[in-house]
Amino acid sequence: MRAAIVNAFGGGFDIEDIDIARPIGREVLVDVKASGLCHSDLHFAVNDFGMAPPMVLGHEVSGIVAAVGPEVSEFTVGDHVVGSLVQFCGACLECLSGRTVSCLRPEATLRADGAPPRLSRRGEPILAAMGTAGFAEQALIHENQLVCIDPAVPFPEASVLGCGTITGAGAVLNAAGVRAGEAVAVIGLGGVGLNVVSGARLVGASRIIGIDLNDEKLELARAFGVTDGINAGEGDVVARVRELTGGGVDHAFEVIGRKETAEQAIAMLRVGGTASLIGIHGAGGMVEFDANGLLREQKKVNGVYMGSANIKHDIPLYASLFLQGRLNLSDLIASEIAIDEINEAYEELGSGRTARTVITRF
Ligand code: NAD
Ligand code: ZN
Ligand code: ZN
């Protein structure tokens, strides 16, 4: 099958023919219909985050079940599914407490050491990164990492549910617990940030301030619920937020992964406010803040991982809200591309002009 392989960090993606194994145990073979280009995959393709080439990345996957392993109980051939990088065992204390993103045995969703690899190239093992490896014609995924969805959801929109939406909307609903009437700022209006905006609209935030360097993004963000847009390249962002809100926001979300914008998120809070940090930083990335100011103003800094999502609950919820017309997914999809265009599409993502690009042709 065709797949986009990372053969070396920083070397881009090579489109090659590789082999995929038959499903064993609780594995499900999925015909991939759409695979979203999350910014995280670009980080993983360039920097060593513990996943080593040769590897297939891609963790916003939707498709149709093509075959199931003998122990699969939740899926049958023909089901429409969404995959997620959240790997959880379902039996440890964290999982049983509902915190599946903090599972103590995430490797339970992978093949045992020494077992034949899921992916290979002329006998050489290739890492199926994050257990999803969605930048390929087919993906072999443990059933815990998959969710069945209503076939009425188109595949491109469905794919974004697997990361952008559960992370962005989940940051608001689960991790930060924004309440109706609170003022929110979102710094970085990409595929994840726009879903933070959606979450803020769902919970009834009083004001949703969108901040980006790109005017096209600020315009697009209005379709998700942004009430005020600020171009970060024009003037003092923190002063502008304070001015708009008469003192600062209750919640600021940083959805880029930069020191200065994370510090802006903390600085733009009103007394008692919470800064939620979502963007992934380069290795060893540090953020500084005025310690006495933080305690005097009782601010909170909140690290957010995968929107504290419980995928089996959250993905069907967001799919249903989409079908009811209450969650905008369609305007996220900037373009549908062939897998051969993945390198150009990731270059374009770096420009900040597009929301989500989705591979739909393999
Ligand atoms: P993206 O590239 O689509 O969006 C980033 C946006 O930030 C762009 O619109 C860009 O114009 C804007 N931007 C860049 N510099 C800016 C600045 N100085 N001020 C204001 N805006 C600026 O990325 P994405 O796919 O939405 O992902 C966003 C971040 O979230 C990435 O770092 C990604 O790795 C991370 N992420 C984290 C989690 C998690 O669990 N914490 C999950 C998924 C993604
Ligand atoms: Zn992602
Ligand atoms: Zn667990």
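^ nicotinamide-adenine-dinucleotide complex. The chain has two domains: 2-148+329-361, 164-306. Residues 38, 40, 59, 163 surround zinc ion (ligand 2) (CB under 6 Å).
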